[in-house]
Amino acid sequence: MTKKQHYRPATQLIHGEVERTLFAETSEALFLTSGFVYENAEQAERTFKGEETHYQYSRFNNPTTKALENRLAALEQAEACVTTSTGMSAIFASLLPLLKSGDRVVASLALFGSSYWIVQNLLPQMGIEGIFIDGTDLQQWQEALSKPTKAVLIETPSNPMLDILDIQAIADLTHKAGGTLIVDNVFATPLYQKPLQFGADLVTYSCTKHIDGQGRVLGGAILGSKKLLDDHIVPFTRNTGLSLSPFNAWVFLKGLETLPVRIEKMTNNALHCAKFLEKSSYIKRVLYPGLKSHPQYTLGQKQMSAPSTMIAFEVKGGKKAAFTFMNALKLILISNNLGDSRCMMTHPATTTHMKVSQEDRLRLGITDGSIRFSVGLEDPQDLIEDLQCGLDAIAALT
Ligand SMILES: *Cc1c(COP(=O)(O)O)cnc(C)c1O
Q: Which of 121, 208, 307, 344 could form a disulfide with 374 if both were Cys (CB 3.0 to 4.6 A apart)?
């Protein structure tokens, strides 16, 4: 519904792009159907020829997943969106259709574990060169992108150490090298950072995280120009079957209605917790885009409208202190998920980034004392008291 398009994001996420059925339901209908019927054989023929718009099969499209795609596109101010079964299928489907053997891909080393695996292991198997650099170092980008490069993959802020990368500068260098820039925007969420406005070509999400926000279902999304999606990405997701389930799309539509209030509260909680942790003598460093101590604080201020919900910190005393801290928590869960309404902590070196070599882990700043903290919706005072339990347990060690 185009007449709703001028509304601001919080309004659009509730009222935007609603297509009601003839029953005039308030909340979006859930179309749990794999197929669709035609009035006659001629209509089926016209549909397959592309002469008539008609749903064909839910691997291609479905009214519920379409509603989610329309709403995500409006939020991102993108021409087009395609949803996928998971965040990882979104990353995979934004890379693979652009590449052929002999091509070259450059990525920042600070990537989600499975994204790292794709560039490190899968692409070379297909004869595609995958190069990792320190994404915060523009000189390394200049060098790496002085050769023709088909695709560049970055995450900012990155998982798990919250590096902030200069999207605009990397986009310019990528385009000079003839490539497509893909930005995994999970940590910032679509509300707090708009990579397309800084020159990125594709933005990906794991909807599993903040968009669901209550840790229920898996899903992903890719956004960008209609041409790039129609020519490359959509034929790939449709024909390889990376499609999102309509049920999961419906859960995400419900999640989007409350996304602005949830992440605002989670961000406030995160700032509160980050400031508390930074004061402790048992903590070596806290990385949070909302703290002036963050190495790329100024860039974050320029590129993000809020510091979002993720914190990384390092306890003094290595793995023993990190495990003691986590095991002493009564409220904050030990879990490798993120973006949930519940607070969660994980120890990247032994979980999400276990498969990254020790050498690359250290290059990323992931030490045995590093902990990733996804901040939830709980009362901030309860969180501070829980963090204090962790700190007390480290104190008792010494
Ligand atoms: C979770 C996550 C992914 C992968 O998403 P799934 O839905 O688990 O497949 C990719 N990138 C980032 C930054 C993530 O946090």
A: 344
